[in-house]
Amino acid sequence: MEEIIDHYKDTINYYIEVKRPEDNPGMADELLQVLNSRHLIENNIPRGKVIIQSSDAESLKYIHSQYPNLPLIQLGSYTNRMDLPEISKYAIGVGPELTTVNKTFIEKAHSNGLIVHCWTVNNQADMEKMIDWGADGIFTNYVGLAVNVKLADRTAPVIPTIYTTSDHSTSIMGTAESKSTVYAWVGNKMLGKAVASNEKYSIKISKQKAGALVSVYSVDAAGNKSGSKTGKVVDRTAPVTPTINIISDQSTYIAGKAELNSKVYAWVGTEKLGVATTSNGKYSIKISKQKAGALVSVYSVDAAGNISSKKTVKTLDRTAPKIPAINKITSKTKYIKGKAEKKATVYVFNKSQKVGKAKVDNKGNFNVKIKAQKKKSQLKIYVIDGAGNKSKIKVIRVY
After folding, report:
1. How many CA atoms lie within 13 Å of 341's alpha carbon, on the beta-carbon side?
2. Which of 53, 64, 290, 333 could form a disulfide with 90 if both were Cys (CB 3.0 to 4.6 A apart)?
3. pLDDT tens by residue, 238-288
4. pTM summary value
5. Which fold has domain 253-314?
6. What is the domain partition of the chain in residue ranges?
7. How far apart are CA 205 and CA 209, in angstroms?
């Protein structure tokens, strides 16, 4: 062996069997010394440059204790005597005798993290069977025959990707192995399928609800199935426009209805009045009193960041005009003059009879034409503004 190693050095890989170590005490140490002196089992050597196999578990355990990173294979003539969990503690694989191997054993070995190298496989049918069952390697006396064996495709496609899918999407798109068929599902309902071209796929679907989990997987021409990729349908639907209850210049709250769990923002021009989160589809935002006529706008933003359209209302005038200021009235007065809220209307009554009315001008002055009233009679005068708000009544005695 030393001659072979000295000739080929590190230009080839070595698969070495330790046979009957019980008849050759110290064999494992001698082997390790040869490999180490040729720099074949140092830490910087690629894994797999040297593999050691043996039917003697104690020898392999000893080698593992000295070189934990050195790949070891546990040989065995009977698969039913192999303690796979125990073997996985010191070896990377097992080497069972061909006639004792079946697909279940190979799957069990793989589930324990062990590769499987079968021996000795000397006919094409057995070679193809081992490959079909998932064996990781074989030993054969007929290398030329093995070279001609057609390898079945047992490699699963790469898991597909999913581009962002929203509740507005009418197709699911992403990447997948070319010529594989990609299937899309929501729960136990298949949405559709498509064959990937140039590593891309597009599956036509009906619109899905926000939050729905869409899963895709691909199946290649050999029937190998990839793992699944799941994506959540993104909410891209704007909330319904909020409603606003009546707002007046006396209001200290803005209230209305909006989408559940959305945030409602209130603005006047560029000034934010406040924000509130809906509860049971309703909201209430505390505000300072606004001027009559001010335009208050609200909109809502849902948890996904979608923004509704705005709802705008005018602040109503609910403030009564001040009591009008009135000049002295005598029994000869034919025009009642005074001051009141601009553009409001002044009413004059003598008991229940309307004596006259007039509009207040833009400067706050009014001039009500009346018939002369008797001395000592009492006139009732009040103002009603454009919003219908009525002032308190002022009683004037005629002199």
Report:
1. 20
2. 64
3. 999 999 999 999 999 999 999 999 999 999 999 999 999 999 999 999 999
4. 0.57
5. Immunoglobulin-like (2.60.40)
6. 2-147, 171-232, 253-314, 325-397
7. 12
